[in-house]
Design a protein that fits this description.
12 strands; alpha/beta; 26% strand
């Protein structure tokens, strides 16, 4: 990582709960940390760890750094929303999580969402007028919420970065690092 891409001093909030797609949390987190950022895994409730999903079955768990009720959007420069079907579906049903996401959008802070992660952005009212991508099954949901959907590995629209699936993670992580390093 060149000095011009250093994320030293940047704090990233990674909001997730049980059922996140394992690679969509762990790989971007690792990329951001290797670029010098501090990434805090934030989850609702009091769980010390959350369990991931690996393709078609339960996978590994990751440590929760901060419970959602103790996390403040003002303490972070960006928000990362991994996918998986279960994770964002649970998050979008929790007003505390939706409000947390909304605060990043209203502050015009970078938000990166992959796969089903944009579901939470829809509930937070942060997709209207944006060009986005996602797992293909969210296309209609995003369009119904006022977004323009494109089938590309990564789409950056201002401070909003979206991606489709685990195979797109390298481009997704690179786009977020470049935005934060600018």
């Amino acid at each position: 990582m060149s000095p011009s891409k250093s994320l030293s001093g940047k704090k990233i909030a990674l909001l997730a709960t049980d059922g996140f797609e394992y690679a969509e949390l762990t790989e971007p987190k690792k990329m951001l940390e290797e670029a010098g950022a501090q990434v805090d895994v934030i989850a609702p409730g009091d769980a010390k760890e959350i369990k991931g999903w690996k393709v078609s079955d339960w996978g590994g768990a990751v440590k929760v750094d901060r419970p959602l009720d103790q996390a403040k959007p003002d303490d972070y420069q960006a928000l990362l929303l991994p996918g998986g079907v279960i994770n964002p579906d649970k998050l979008r049903m929790k007003e505390e999580a939706v409000s947390f996401v909304r605060a990043f959008g209203e502050a015009n802070k970078p938000i990166a969402a992959i796969c089903h992660g944009p579901w939470t952005l829809i509930n937070a009212g942060q997709v209207k007028g944006h060009t986005m991508t996602s797992w293909p099954s969210l296309k209609q949901d995003l369009e119904n919420a006022g977004a323009r959907w494109e089938d590309r590995e990564v789409v950056r629209d201002g401070n909003l970065i979206t991606s489709r699936k685990p195979v797109d993670i390298p481009a997704f992580g690179k786009a977020l690092i470049e935005l934060l390093a600018a």
